[in-house]
Specification:
Layout: E1 27-30, H1 44-52, E2 73-82, E3 88-94, E4 105-106, E5 109-111, H2 119-131, E6 138-143, E7 147-148, E8 153-162, E9 175-182, H3 183-186, E10 193-198, E11 204-214, E12 217-222, H4 223-237
Parallel strand pairs: 2-8
Antiparallel strand pairs: 1-10, 2-3, 2-5, 3-4, 3-9, 6-8, 7-8, 10-11, 11-12
Length: 238
């Protein structure tokens, strides 16, 4: 993320982050009853057509519990769908030294700056600053409804196609690494897990996770990142 990041791209409880491991929170259900998005809807032309003529649909998740008095701020993330033979989503892992949400999985993104021409421009700028993904490889398809984080960032996901011949230049201050997860995996609710916990004030917190086993490494996609992907699922499945 940038120096002014979308701080709560993932849902966190009020306890200090170092004392909290979302992987240890119980899974209450898995959505095996919901159908996966059909493979023919995940291709380049089908994705273009879907955003060109959107269906009637309702986003499932719109906000996290409010846990700050911070004034709301606009932010944007890029949801980069890499157009390989089997499409993937490019994600990042935040560096371990960051004050907020270190080591967590996120989309490239951050606060909208006054100099940004629009939301899409903000997402493209952040992708360039964080991982060196050049706009020349990116075709913006459209946006999904906003998702408000626990720190009052109103995040607009900008969905885009990315040509697979790109080369990244990761900003080591913000991003530990970038990696890809198959779009078909993320668009299959059998991989969507619901978690529930109760905090010290007896308030219930719920979120989704979509853990992906990448060789020997588990990519733990969760919180707001997973919430925005869930909305993409609802959009493509509608």
């Amino acid at each position: 993320m940038s120096a002014t990041p979308v701080e709560a791209i993932n849902v966190v409880p009020p306890a200090p982050l170092k004392a909290f491991d979302p992987r240890q929170v119980p899974v209450t259900s898995v959505d095996i009853h919901l159908p996966a998005v059909a493979a023919d809807r995940l291709g380049l032309h089908a994705l273009r057509d879907r955003f060109a003529a959107p269906p009637v649909w309702t986003p499932e998740l719109r906000r996290d519990p409010r846990m700050t008095d911070r004034a709301p701020a606009q932010a944007a993330v890029l949801v980069p769908i890499v157009t390989r033979d089997k499409p993937t989503v490019l994600l990042t892992e935040r560096t371990a030294h960051l004050t907020h949400h270190s080591g967590q999985v996120a989309f490239p993104g951050g606060r909208v700056d006054p100099e940004d021409a629009n939301i899409s421009a903000a997402a493209l700028r952040e992708a360039w600053e964080e991982v060196g993904l050049s706009a020349e490889y990116i075709e913006v398809l459209g946006t999904l409804p906003t998702y408000t984080t626990i720190t009052s960032f109103i995040v607009t996901p900008v969905v885009a196609l990315v040509r697979p011949d790109f080369e990244l230049a990761i900003n080591p201050h913000e991003v530990a690494e970038a990696f890809e997860v198959p779009l078909a995996f993320l668009m299959n609710p059998a991989n969507h897990r619901h978690h529930t916990m109760t905090d010290d004030d007896r308030r219930s917190r719920e979120w989704l996770s979509m853990p992906y086993q990448d060789g020997a490494h588990e990519r733990f996609v969760w919180g707001a990142t997973a919430g925005m992907l869930r909305n993409l699922y609802r959009f493509l499945a509608a």
